[in-house]
Amino acid sequence: MSFFTFLRRKRKPETAEQRRERLLQRGRITDGVIIDSEISVDGDEIVQYSYSVHGAEFESSEQLTDEQKLDPVKYAPGASVSVRFDPNNHGNSIIV
């Protein structure tokens, strides 16, 4: 295998669990606000939230984990939350 072939190899896509673990370990923290909450057809709770990094505003959504579902007031619309984001891709984030 040549060096250039090695560089062009496609990596396996990151699973949601791997992404969450990586952001929990290496992500930077900022403040965010829950904008809205809804229940999906499958019964999962999905929250939309906003946050800013260096003056740029971001919006995202996330399915709550089982642990997060135990504290519904903490993830209600209007609630302040901590957001972990990828310093290399500010749009990649999770709520904690």
Residue share in helix: 10-25%
Beta-strand content estimate = 35-45%
- Taking all Cα atoms into account, the compactness measure Rg is 16 Å
Largest sheet: 5 strands, antiparallel
Mean pLDDT: 90
Secondary structure tally, helices: 3
Secondary-structure-based class equals alpha+beta
What sequence of helices (H) and strands (E) makes up the elements? HHEEEHEE
- How do the strands line up in the largest sheet? 3-2-1-4-5
Shape: globular
pLDDT < 50 runs, ≥5 residues: none
**Count the strands?**
5
Distance between the termini: 42 Å
SSE inventory with pairings:
Layout lengths: L2 H6 L7 H11 L1 E12 L5 E9 L2 E8 L2 H4 L10 E7 L2 E7 L1
Antiparallel strand pairs: 1-2, 1-4, 2-3, 4-5
Explained architecture:
The protein is α+β, with helices and mostly antiparallel strands. It has a domain at 29-95. 22% of the residues lie in helices and 45% in strands. The chain is built from three helices and five strands. Strands 3-2-1-4-5 form a five-stranded antiparallel sheet. Strand 2 and strand 3 (56-63) form a beta hairpin. The longest helix has 11 residues, at 16-26. The radius of gyration is 16 Å and the shape is globular. The mean pLDDT is 90.
